[in-house]
């Protein structure tokens, strides 16, 4: 029984793991929770907050210093997971983004609704130790794309809250409990995001706008999670290795804009506390390890965040847990 | 509930930002001489591409960081010659400098390939220019730090801010290879890479942009296909007309006597030596190319020899200077965008 509960919690926390979303370019996407909760909770709500410092200036794989810019991105989101069926679940994430860019001469910022994502997840396989899920979804062009700066000039696409495009997400995940020993679990995730192209970015009544599309993205991660049981509840420290590849942005007459796209390797770490099955809190951070970028880009220097989750459990939850 | 409280605190804390920069207010003037909808934020932000305000120079025959065939922007004033390498300008776009009392800025836009010398005396003030991060017709828009006004490099005027409508006075510059420049001006100072910034000078930061005619990153007004988009041309600009001369027109050494907007001009160029210059002819005529005598590049019908920077060095008018005419080297697409009626010189 206890082992089953722990397995369930592992799955629950596993679904907290960010697997990425492009809301911002310059090699600095704001990750978000787009995986569907794959526990047997009927309905759950996750309030998330993430801060990204975007202050590394990289030329291909070399760090440059004396960059006169400071960039940051903040993302507050509400994610709702709904269990449609034993194997099917649906998730919606509503993000709000704040971004700022500061130099010695000017400070510009934007705050607004981001692109809402809708993801459905199918449980392909689940047995005592192993769970496999596939996910597919859309990111809708709901975000604000007309933020302007001083002198009423449109901010660049990476400073907008939304992309203005319909994007497609597909992915899969694997979770294996009792890995090596009973306190350890391993998980791996893969996600591909095909970003659309906005043919009319910054359009006005007398100007048809500019063509822009973020590069398509692939994310893959593998992580370990340790479980510790205490009288206060369950504690789960975790550690992962995350790889991200982004293709070049599409701009005006070119599908391979310079200084965009590349490869990133980072180290996400997290710590979760679960006082009871229906509540949990997780804090996390992500540190860059290796960047091999196309040309010159300003990219993420660090990330940290927190997620708070509340669930309404199924009436037959006890049975579900037993069946696990 | 206590989790929500914690979350709120974190958000508020983080919104305070990590900025150790204290930006100026910025220009919030909404009057533009150009359609503001066609002014684009290039991404780095104002001063995100740092100008060099305290350039350092060397006098050297063999700079380790610069190949002989690398392009430089050269200026000569009061007998002092200075050269500014493209490989540095690619990363900074503006160098604020002076020779004696002559305060100028070398402005360079990597996206249009245009280098223009600007007088830093604006009105009764001496200013410095910075990179605004904005682009019009995919071309650099400097801002002046005295009034925070925005300027257009290729329109040569102020398009937004308190100086709107003011014309910039240009300073004649020559674009050529380091090898040609050094041959012409052996004592020339060369800007070095001690800019105060760590950058990969020598590594072009825009991929295949220079040569890929299909790669234009921002919208331009008039995509003219009469010449390849990235063809390197010299554009002569008068009040009433403009005319481009392609580098392909000039083989070894060529001299073209021509008329643009009612002005008699001479255009002298060499694809081999990689330069193109244009001057008003004044009362001179019968120009012929002079090969192998750099800095001399031409002579007039009476045999007076003329240097790369337009100085007459022999004959009765020795010591005089051919009057300069506004002329800018850059990619053809940019010239056609700013000067849609531009005429193309044909042999």
Walk me through this protein's architecture.
- The complex is a heterodimer of chains A (324) and B (347).
- Chain A is mainly beta.
- Chain A has one domain (2-323): Lipocalin.
- Chain A has helices spanning 2-14, 317-323; strands spanning 41-53, 56-59, 62-64, 70-83, 88-102, 107-113, 117-126, 130-139, 167-176, 184-194, 198-201, 210-213, 217-226, 228-230, 233-246, 250-251, 262-276, 279-293, 296-299, 302-313.
- In chain A, the strands form three sheets. Chain A has a twelve-stranded antiparallel β-barrel. A three-stranded antiparallel sheet of chain A has the order 3-2-19, with no helix packed on it. In chain A, strands 11-12-16 form a three-stranded antiparallel sheet, with no helix packed on it.
- In chain A, strand 11 and strand 12 (210-213) form a beta hairpin.
- The radius of gyration of chain A is 20 Å and the shape is globular.
- Chain A starts with a helix and ends with a helix.
- With 347 residues, chain B is mostly beta strands.
- Chain B has two domains: 39-191, no CATH class; 232-344, no CATH class.
- Helices cover 10% and strands 36% of the residues of chain B.
- Chain B is built from four helices and 26 strands.
- Chain B is globular.
- Mean pLDDT of chain B is 91; it is low at 1-20.
- At the A-B interface, strand 1, strand 4 and strand 5 of A face helix 1 and strand 1 of B.
Residue windows where pLDDT falls under 50 for at least 5 positions of chain A: 1-38, 317-324
Compressed to H and E, one letter per element, the order of chain A equals HEEEEEEEEEEEEEEEEEEEEH
Percent range for helical residues of chain B?
10-25%
Question: Which consecutive residue ranges of chain B, at least 5 long each, have pLDDT under 50?
Answer: 1-20
Sheet with most strands: strand arrangement of chain B: 2-16-4-3-15
* Tally of DSSP helical segments of chain B: 4
Content-based structural category of chain A: mainly beta
Compute the number of structural domains of chain A. Answer: 1
How many individual β-strands of chain A?
20
Terminal-residue CA separation of chain B: 81 Å
> Main beta sheet of chain B: strand number and arrangement?
5 strands, mixed
Q: Output mean pLDDT of chain B.
A: 91
Q: Give me the side-by-side strand order of the main sheet of chain A.
A: 1-4-5-7-8-9-10-13-15-17-18-20
- Tally of discrete structural domains of chain B: 2
Mean pLDDT of chain A: 85
Biggest chain contact = A-B, 60 and 61 residues
Count, helices of chain A: 2
- Give the C-alpha Rg of chain B: 22 Å
Question: Which shape of chain A, going by the Cα principal axes?
Answer: globular
């Amino acid at each position: 029984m206890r082992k089953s509960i722990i397995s369930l919690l592992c799955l629950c926390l596993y679904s907290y793991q960010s697997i990425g979303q492009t809301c911002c370019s310059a090699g600095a996407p704001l990750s978000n929770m787009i995986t569907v909760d794959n526990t047997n909770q009927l309905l759950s709500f996750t309030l998330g907050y993430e801060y990204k410092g975007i202050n590394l200036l990289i030329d291909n794989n070399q760090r440059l210093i004396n960059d006169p810019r400071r960039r940051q991105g903040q993302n507050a989101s509400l994610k709702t997971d709904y269990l449609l069926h034993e194997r099917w679940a649906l998730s919606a994430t509503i993000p709000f983004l704040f971004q700022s860019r500061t130099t010695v001469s000017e400070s510009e910022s934007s705050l607004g609704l981001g692109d809402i994502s809708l993801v459905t997840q199918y449980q392909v396989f689940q047995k005592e130790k192993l769970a496999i899920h596939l996910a597919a979804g859309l990111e809708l062009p709901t975000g604000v794309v007309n933020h302007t700066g001083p002198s009423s000039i449109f901010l660049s696409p990476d400073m907008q809250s939304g992309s203005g495009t319909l994007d497609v997400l597909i992915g899969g995940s694997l979770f294996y409990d009792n890995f090596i020993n009973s306190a350890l679990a391993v998980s791996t995730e893969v996600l591909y995001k095909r970003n659309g192209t906005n043919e009319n970015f910054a359009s006005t009544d007398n100007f048809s706008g500019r063509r822009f599309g973020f590069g398509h993205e692939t994310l893959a991660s593998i992580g370990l999670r340790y479980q510790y049981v205490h009288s206060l509840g369950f504690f789960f420290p975790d550690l992962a290795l995350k790889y991200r590849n982004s293709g070049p942005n599409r701009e005006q007459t070119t599908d391979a804009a310079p200084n965009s796209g590349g490869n990133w390797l980072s180290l996400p770490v997290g710590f979760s506390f679960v006082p009871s099955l229906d509540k949990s809190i997780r804090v996390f951070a992500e540190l860059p390890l290796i960047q091999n970028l196309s040309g010159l880009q300003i990219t993420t220097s660090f990330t940290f965040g927190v997620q708070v989750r509340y669930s309404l459990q199924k009436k037959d939850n006890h049975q579900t847990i037993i069946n696990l | 509930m206590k989790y929500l409280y914690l979350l709120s605190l974190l958000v508020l804390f983080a919104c305070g930002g990590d900025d150790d920069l204290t930006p100026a207010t910025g220009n919030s003037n909404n009057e533009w001489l150009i359609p503001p909808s066609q002014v684009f934020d290039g991404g780095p932000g104002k001063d995100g591409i740092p100008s060099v305000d305290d350039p350092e120079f060397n006098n050297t025959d063999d700079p380790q960081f610069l190949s002989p065939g690398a392009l430089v922007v050269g200026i000569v004033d009061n007998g002092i010659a200075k050269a500014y390498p493209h490989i540095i300008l690619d990363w900074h776009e503006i160098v604020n400098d002076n020779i004696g009392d002559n305060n100028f800025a070398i402005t360079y836009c990597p996206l249009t390939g245009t280098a223009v010398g600007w007088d830093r005396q604006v009105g009764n003030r001496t200013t410095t220019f910075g990179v605004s991060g904005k682009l019009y017709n995919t071309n650099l828009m400097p801002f002046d730090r005295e009034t925070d006004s925005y300027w257009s490099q290729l329109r040569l005027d102020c398009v937004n801010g308190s100086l709107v409508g003011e014309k910039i006075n240009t300073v004649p510059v020559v674009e050529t290879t380091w090898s040609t420049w050094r041959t012409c001006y052996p004592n020339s100072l060369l800007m070095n890479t001690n800019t105060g910034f760590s950058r990969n000078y020598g590594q072009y930061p825009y991929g295949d942009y220079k040569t890929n005619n299909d790669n234009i990153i921002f919208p331009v007004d008039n995509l003219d296909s009469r010449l390849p988009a990235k063809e390197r041309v010299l554009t002569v600009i008068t009040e009433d007309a403009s005319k481009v001369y392609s580098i392909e027109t000039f083989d070894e050494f060529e001299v073209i006597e021509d008329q643009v907007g009612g002005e008699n001009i001479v255009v002298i160029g060499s694809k081999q030596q990689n330069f193109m210059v244009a001057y008003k002819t004044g009362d001179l005529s019968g120009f012929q190319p002079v090969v192998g005598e750099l800095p001399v590049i031409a002579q007039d019908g009476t045999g007076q020899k003329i240097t790369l920077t337009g100085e007459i060095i022999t004959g009765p008018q020795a010591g005089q200077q051919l009057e300069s005419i506004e002329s800018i080297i850059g990619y053809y697409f940019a010239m056609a965008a700013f000067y849609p009626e531009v005429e193309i010189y044909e042999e």
